[in-house]
Design brief:
754 residues; 6 domains; 7-stranded antiparallel β-sheet; 29 helices; Prokaryotic RING finger family 4
Length: 754
């Protein structure tokens, strides 16, 4: 059992993993000297411990406490270089565009032109009377750092985050809840699941309902040479194709290869600029998609298809939507050869029906009925497949009329997963508003705007509002029936007030990894004091090189005006930047900061501040790049000698860019100035600077997150349906739903399983 892996996973749930039994904890013991030293180190990083964990730590050897401390220090980035370009950057250097221009001219013509000044280690001449070089840790002209910092501030945070005890049983609970999650896993959950899959066997009674989760499990089972066990998770040919696609591309969602190649060309053109880079990227993607399989892989897929629990016609119809891809796969995997061998009769029958096309498709029948405007036939067919009916519910309401479609949908509503119903309720208001911009974020990572359905113009405001109300009433009535059917012996319920600020996760999945929490997109973080400090750290583990990442903030002022704090504007209303670093030192990385002053922003009439990070010089954001913000009621220091402004105890939220993330830019939060709240969101975009972050799309995403049903509201629905009395104290409740409970989103989704 790998204690370090389990410690890292536990920390995401605000817990410390200890390999002990709760029954063995002496709750009357006093904290030992090593434990007191350990808790002191935790406090420096912004953590405290629960009473149970404090007593449990007494049974832990000192060397294990040291391992946990080292792990937390690593996660919090304590040993990284947090020096900025400017020393004491809260005091302006008063550098100007003229300084850059004069320095450029001086370096172009050289000292022979009569320029006097200081030549820095990077080779640049800084003329006299330009940059105050004594204020910099590196070259103010090219952004190359010369000095690093071997310290960070600690213990300035005013609000400690409590860590709980996690035992083996708790870790197994997280493991099984991730496996059984009824909503798709985000990047943090996927990473945790992959780690835990290597530590624990898959339970015999595991109920894996999500196709994406099943694909992750199948991949690991294949790696462990357990293809026979993986076959239990493969119910249709599409499940097999999904695994093969994931194995090739890392994407779970299947898209046509030509679409992916075209996207690679377009994406890399946006990132790199030169067209030839985009062409090369397309060639690389084509090469990656070449189908070459060895004998073991071919036999494995042949056995899987032969064991599919569908008739040949059902299997062939399932394969039809991706017919072109299947034709290539059948050839590459030599399935025709295997179908002629003894014991592969079902495979032979599937291929025979597939090639002869001796089947009709459900989608074809729906399309025909829809084109003939036959509402009765269309709705009758849609009721056969409730999931697909849900996905086209809104468009069907506009096409055939709301009343008729809603009546048909109500007949099958209770057969649907609750997450689909919740998605409909969350999306209805935006969909039926002809002025609202909708967002789509495909697996390729770039957020797209979707224009309103043209059929909305056929209806007036009252009719459109009636459609929204109909959908709202439909999903609430279904959820009430589900909760009532669950039954409970409880009489009282406690709902933490913070849960009303956390949306139920049924759609917006983050692609970044949260190593110190599992907050859901749309979570609101209150600002304690008048200052918020953004931070960006990148380059950990990389050799010294030119690697330019940028931290920026866009301030939305009154009357549609915008102010920007970025590498080209280090000072603006209510914001200060620590300087533009464009190269990284050896192995330890480098950092940038932005300090926001809420009083100044309020006086200037600012409404929102959008936080972004961008990759200026390379294709995508650097792996292991860490970005987030700090907040504390206590003043946060800035070093006059090194410019260090990082304190792990003040970190309110922090995310890490994972391997394979191709985002050029990332919006990672929005400060609501009037409410003194920061909304965590994640919206990738393809631009070198924050100006490429579409304001309209950001506002649309904010509106979408605000409109989502919160966990607290969902629990209110449960309480009403089950006649539970809501109490104010957790000790008085038969059922308690706390913030700590909500840290495991997979547990939250269990509310949707009723």
């Amino acid at each position: 059992m790998n204690n370090e892996i389990l410690t890292r996973v536990a920390l995401r749930y605000r817990a410390v993993f200890l390999d002990i039994n709760r029954e063995d904890i002496n709750m009357r013991s006093e904290a030992s000297v090593p434990v007191l030293a350990f808790t002191k180190r935790l406090k420096e990083n912004g953590f405290c411990v629960s009473e149970e964990l404090l007593h449990a730590l007494n049974a832990v050897p000192a060397d294990r406490l040291a391992e946990i401390t080292e792990c937390i220090n690593d996660v919090m980035g304590v040993k990284l270089n947090w020096a900025s370009l400017v020393k004491g950057w809260n005091v302006p250097t008063d550098e100007t565009l003229a300084d850059h221009l004069i320095t450029f001219i001086a370096n172009f013509f050289g000292k022979e032109a009569g320029f006097k000044g200081t030549t820095l280690p990077c080779g640049h001449l800084i003329p006299e009377g330009t940059f105050p070089i004594e204020r910099y840790n590196g070259c103010p002209f090219c952004g190359t750092p010369f000095e690093t910092a071997d310290f960070v501030y600690k213990g300035q945070g005013s609000k400690l985050k409590e860590l709980r005890l996690f035992t083996i049983s708790d870790m197994k609970h997280v493991f099984t809840s991730l496996l059984a999650s009824s909503t798709p896993l985000d990047a943090t959950q996927k990473d945790s699941l992959e780690q835990l899959l290597r530590e624990f066997p898959i339970p015999e009674d595991a109920n894996i309902t999500m196709k994406e989760t099943a694909t992750l499990v199948i991949k690991l089972l294949v790696e462990q040479d357990k293809a026979g066990e993986a076959a239990k998770l493969l119910k249709t040919p599409t499940d097999i194709l999904r695994y093969l696609w994931y194995e090739k591309t890392g994407y779970v969602q299947i898209i046509e290869p030509k679409t992916l190649v075209a996207h690679a060309r377009k994406l890399y053109y946006h990132m790199w600029g030169p067209l030839d880079r985009g062409v090369d990227a397309a060639k690389d993607m084509k090469k990656k998609l070449m189908l070459k399989y060895d004998h073991r892989a071919c036999l494995r897929v042949a056995l899987w298809l032969n064991a599919i629990p569908l008739t040949a016609k059902q299997a062939a119809e399932n394969m039809n939507p991706k017919r072109g891809m299947w034709v290539r796969m059948i050839r590459a995997l030599r399935l025709g050869e295997y179908s002629r061998k003894n014991g592969f009769d079902h495979l032979a029958e599937i291929l025979d029906v597939f090639y002869k096309q001796e089947y009709s498709t459900w989608q074809g029948r729906v399309d025909r009925a829809r084109s003939e405007n036959d509402a009765d036939m269309t709705l009758a067919l849609l009721k056969e497949r409730p999931g697909l009916f849900a996905r086209c519910l809104f468009a069907s309401m506009l096409r055939f009329g709301s009343d008729k479609v809603i009546v048909a949908f109500e007949e099958i509503a209770d057969k649907l997963p609750a997450r689909l119903l919740l998605s409909l309720g969350n999306a209805a208001e935006t969909y039926f508003d002809p002025k609202e911009v909708r967002l789509a974020r495909p697996i390729t990572g770039v957020t797209h705007k979707i224009e309103p359905n043209k059929l909305l113009a056929l209806y007036d405001d009252d009719a459109r509002k009636a459609m929204v109300d109909a959908v709202d009433g439909l999903y609430k009535a279904s959820m009430a029936r589900r909760f009532a059917a669950q039954g409970t012996e409880a009489k009282t319920i406690f709902i933490d007030s913070s849960l009303y600020n956390i949306p139920v996760s049924v759609g917006d999945r983050s692609t970044t990894i949260q190593d110190t929490s599992c907050a859901l997109m749309g979570t609101r973080f209150p600002v304690e004091d008048d200052a918020v400090r953004l931070f960006l750290q990148w380059g950990k583990g990389l050799h010294a090189q030119h690697l330019d990442m940028d931290l920026s903030a866009r301030i939305a002022l009154a009357n549609g005006k915008v102010s920007e704090c970025a590498y080209y504007s280090l000072r603006c209303v209510g914001a200060k930047h620590s300087g533009d670093i464009r190269s990284i030192p050896e192995m330890v990385g480098t950092a940038e900061y932005i300090e926001l002053s809420l009083p100044e922003l309020e006086n200037a009439g600012a409404k929102y501040v959008t936080f972004t990070c961008n990759a200026y010089s390379v294709g995508a954001l650097s792996p292991n790049l860490v970005v987030g913000w700090m907040d504390s009621a206590n003043p946060m220091k800035i070093s006059e000698k090194k410019g260090v402004a990082y304190d792990p105890s003040c970190v309110q939220h922090m995310v890490r860019i994972s391997e394979g993330n191709l985002s050029k830019g990332l919006v990672f939060g929005v400060l609501d100035v009037a409410k003194h709240e920061i909304i965590w969101l994640e919206m990738p975009f393809t631009s070198q600077t924050l100006r490429g972050a579409n304001s309209e799309a950001i506002e649309a995403l904010l509106h979408k997150l605000e409109a989502k049903l919160s966990i607290g509201q969902l629990l209110d629905m449960k309480a009403k349906a089950q006649n539970l009395i809501v109490v104010e104290n957790v000790e008085d409740a038969d059922e308690a739903y706390t913030y700590e409970w909500a840290l495991n989103p997979a547990d939250v989704t269990k509310l949707l399983n009723g």
